[in-house]
Design a protein that fits this description.
mainly alpha; disordered C terminus
């Protein structure tokens, strides 16, 4: 991959791929129907659909909140290298309204998905449920959703709003406002992502206690988002919109951050497991005991440990591979697969305690394809409405390694030679 000579970049025609999202939606509907009847239909099929929809929803939510974080990180550190990719992360973060609509089926089926919402536990809550009051209450469940989506929509759209205004005016006021929204955004981001992970995934087994679960979800989300942003930027460079602004530096730093979050995810995953294993408290260890049965044992011991950590860790050790499109594209596909297995490991044992269900996986893939198609269409339409990268950002020249000579100063002192 050439870094500076755009003429050496092999062009890519996206026209043949325009219908891929629509095809994904159609295939998703077919697979959801097949999976629904394969698991037995009726109430059993509805419950499986609720879990499969939750898995697919949390998968694409990972990309949305991960991109939100990358935009915040760009402004927090006043980075220059990430200016050319900022419009990509801004657009991905602004998919929150679409995800709000896609959350509605989960909100409708919540009582069939979350056991603690059942009438028996609502009437006679156990100690674990009582200790998490009022968060794990039916009103609390919907209030958390409202708060999370309010924060994600308002902050991502405000950051994008001032970014687009910067394209028009180039005013320093735009940069100032983006930094103000970032300063508050990093705190509300941490709170809302933690709440979403706890209420929407961890609460499937409400008896479990973990203080690291929000960080666990965050680490996996950003890891997968970095791989996704790498692929999107690569495609947009080949297709033309980012042809003249994507250099080696951008790809190298994306690959380096991907490597860093590979280690960070492994650290968080191991730390949580080690602390729970060392304490050996019944209200904590049971969560892992359930996942020591059937295929969950294989996924937990081999797929996540070796696939989610060792494969990308060893693969990214070499500096040059971060600049190899073929390798990084393959690694991105691997990252999506690992996130799928990771979410399977966290969500599905609540429904299938003996291991993965083949019929259920069909429904999982159907929901993934359906939501993926909708999110892809929304991203393309939103991204194509404006300039593909910031036009008047004060750090754009530095990000592209372009030297801009300083403005000549005109002396106002009296000319003594006269």
């Amino acid at each position: 991959m050439s870094s500076h000579d755009s003429a050496q970049i092999e062009p890519l025609d996206l026209a043949p791929y325009r219908n891929v999202p629509v095809i994904a939606i159609v295939v998703g509907v077919i697979l959801m129907a097949l999976g629904f009847f394969a698991v037995g239909g009726g109430d059993k099929g509805v419950v499986q659909f609720g879990f499969s929809w939750l898995l697919a929803f949390m998968f694409f939510l990972s990309l949305c909140v991960g991109a939100f974080f990358l935009t915040l990180a760009h402004h927090m550190f006043d980075a220059s290298w990430s200016v050319p990719i900022r419009r990509v992360t801004e657009t991905m973060g602004c998919l929150a309204p679409i995800l709000l609509i896609l959350w509605i089926p989960l909100g409708i089926l919540a009582k069939k998905v979350y056991p603690w919402m059942g009438p028996e536990l609502q009437a006679h809550p156990d100690h674990a449920l009582s200790s998490k009051h009022p968060l794990l209450t039916i009103p609390g469940f919907y209030i958390v959703a409202a708060v999370c989506f309010f924060v994600w929509i308002v902050w991502t759209w405000q950051l994008r709003r001032w970014s687009l205004r910067q394209d028009e005016t180039g005013s320093a006021r735009c940069t100032y406002h983006m930094r103000i929204w970032t300063g508050t955004g990093i705190f509300v981001f941490a709170i809302t992502v933690t709440l979403a992970a706890i209420v929407w995934i961890k609460a499937l087994m409400h008896e479990w206690f973990s203080t690291m679960y929000g960080v666990w979800y965050f680490a996996s989300a950003v890891w997968t988002t970095l791989a996704t942003v790498y692929v999107i930027c690569l495609v947009l460079q080949r297709a033309g919109p980012l042809r003249h602004v994507m250099h080696e530096k951008q790809y190298y730093f994306l690959g380096s951050l991907l490597f860093a979050f590979t280690v960070f995810y492994a650290y968080v995953t191991f730390a949580q497991y080690f602390i729970i294993w060392n304490a050996n408290m019944p209200e904590e260890v049971f969560w892992y005991n359930v996942r020591e049965v059937g295929s969950w044992k294989i996924i937990g011991r081999y797929v996540i440990i070796f696939g989610h950590f060792f494969v990308p860790f060893l693969g990214l050790l070499r500096i040059d591979v971060k600049l190899k499109p073929t390798f990084m594209f393959g690694l991105a596909i691997w990252a999506w697969l690992m996130l799928f297995f990771d979410l399977q490991f966290q969500i599905m044992p609540s429904l299938h305690d003996q291991g993965m269900s083949a019929a259920g996986v069909i429904l999982d893939i159907g929901c993934m394809a359906f939501i993926g198609g909708i999110v892809s269409i929304a991203f393309v339409r939103m991204f194509s409405k404006h300039a593909p990268y910031p036009q008047k950002d004060p750090r754009i020249a530095e990000g592209l390694d372009v030297y801009v000579p300083p403005t000549s100063y005109i002396s106002t002192a009296p000319d003594r030679a006269k």
